[in-house]
Design a protein that fits this description.
By secondary structure, the chain is of the alpha+beta class.
Length: 176
């Protein structure tokens, strides 16, 4: 496999994005959704992220989308406007190849350039060690665990929260 290129997502990537996400919804615990959203729903979600001014990236190699990442508001109330939440999903065939790290590093850089000051990872399942390790390698620190917040695949799932300071973080007032 060629080294993946990280780029802005395009409309024609949505089917691959939906396929990657559907696999995680059906077989994993990183998402608490129970039924995979349709391609049209994923298109609408992507468009909402882009309209809000956030990055929505894909990793592509050999003409295939291997993963995607995006940032969105952590919460919609105005005081939270400098805090974003990241989402990173990698195709099952590309797990363990560094695609997730490349996506997350690029996403962090884009959010810093946009003036975000904190990035939160809200990770489904405290046994999701791959996502927890990915975020730790990218400088996130453990912020807490919300126990038994989801029920999926016949068991209770925790939610792990990790946090990374971006740019000046809380050391200076935000721009604008």
């Amino acid at each position: 496999m060629d080294t993946p290129v990280i780029r802005d997502s395009r409309d024609e990537d949505v089917a691959a994005i939906q396929s990657i996400y559907a696999h995680h919804v059906l077989h994993g615990t990183g998402s608490f959704e129970l039924d995979p959203p349709s391609t049209d729903e994923m298109r609408a979600r992507r468009e909402a992220v882009l309209q809000a001014g956030f990055a929505y990236l894909v990793a592509e190699a050999d003409g295939r989308v291997l993963g995607y990442a995006y940032a969105n508001l952590f919460r919609t109330r105005p005081a939270y406007r400098f805090t974003v939440e990241d989402s990173v999903y990698v195709a099952d065939t590309a797990r363990g190849t560094g695609v997730g790290r490349r996506l997350l590093v690029a996403l962090i850089a884009r959010c810093e350039l946009a003036g975000s000051r904190q990035m939160l990872a809200v990770i489904g399942d405290s046994f999701n060690t791959a996502s927890i390790a990915l975020h730790a390698r990218c400088g996130f620190r453990f912020a807490g665990t919300m126990r038994a917040t989801g029920w999926k695949h016949g068991r209770w799932l925790d939610t792990v929260v990790m946090q990374k300071e971006l740019g000046d973080a809380d050391r200076a007032p935000p721009r604008g």
